[in-house]
Amino acid sequence: MPKTVVQLDFDGTVTEDDVSFLMLDEYVGKDWRKHLDEYKTGDITVGAFNKIVFGRMKQDEKTLTNFVLSDPRVQVRPGLKEFVEYCRSKDIEVVIVSNGLIFYIEALLKQQGITGLEIHAAENAFYETGVQVRYLGPDSQEVESGFKEVYTDYLCQKGYQVIYIGNGTSDIYPARKARHVCATADLLEICNKEKVKCYPFNDFFDAIKIVENLKLD
């Protein structure tokens, strides 16, 4: 029987809203959103987008972490810890693969009492001139685009059957390659449009029920 892994998106999936967008609105101002439009239309890669917008963020890690942990708009979907514990009890691995930044993913997981998860996201370094970010693939080489599906391919090549859980437009690419898909928001809409089989969810208690009922090979 193949090993099973949950590949879990973070912003908008683990959290209700996109944490990086909240930080950018707070500390950079709304002007960064013109670059978001460029990313959405494919004019720039996610790697280039994050380098531009976070390069304008001058705050240190402590300030940004305090914002993430205290702002009431940053909400984790209910049942996350219970979902992780359920997967561990069934020998299902959980790996977070996100276009977000590692520092706030780690901080929010710690706040939830969750430790030991494998995380692949934008590496970050804090300088007075701005936050430097980069994505590294499984081969430790920098990835400019397609970061999430690079890891889906890697997990599949390692013999895992992948359960993908996501919410956004960028999640359709790894979702197409996964064995099973749990979707909400934009990803759910795209899956329905493309007739990609998926299971809708609102929180991680839903996700527990979905995984319980999957026929895993």
Termini separation (Å)?
A: 6 Å
Q: What percent strand?
A: 15-25%
Portion in helices:
40-55%
Pick out the low-confidence regions.
none
CATH architecture annotation name: 3-Layer(aba) Sandwich
What is the strand arrangement across the widest sheet? 4-3-2-1-5-6-7
Rg to the nearest angstrom?
17 Å
H and E string: EHHHHHEHEEHEHEHEH
**Average residue pLDDT:** 96
CATH topology: Rossmann fold
Per CATH, the superfamily is HAD superfamily/HAD-like
Shape: globular
**Broad structural category:** alpha/beta
Number of strands: 7
Sheet having the most strands = 7 strands, mixed
State the name of the first-level CATH class. Alpha Beta
- The number of helical segments is 10
Whole-number tally of structural domains: 1
Structure overview:
This protein has 217 residues and is an alpha/beta fold. The protein has a single domain, classed as HAD superfamily/HAD-like (Rossmann fold), CATH 3.40.50. The protein has ten helices and seven strands. A seven-stranded mixed β-sheet has the order 4-3-2-1-5-6-7, sandwiched between helices. Strand 2, helix 6 and strand 3 (118-127) form a beta-alpha-beta unit. Helix 2 (33-40) packs antiparallel against helix 3. The longest helix has 11 residues, at 147-157. The N and C termini lie close together (6 Å).
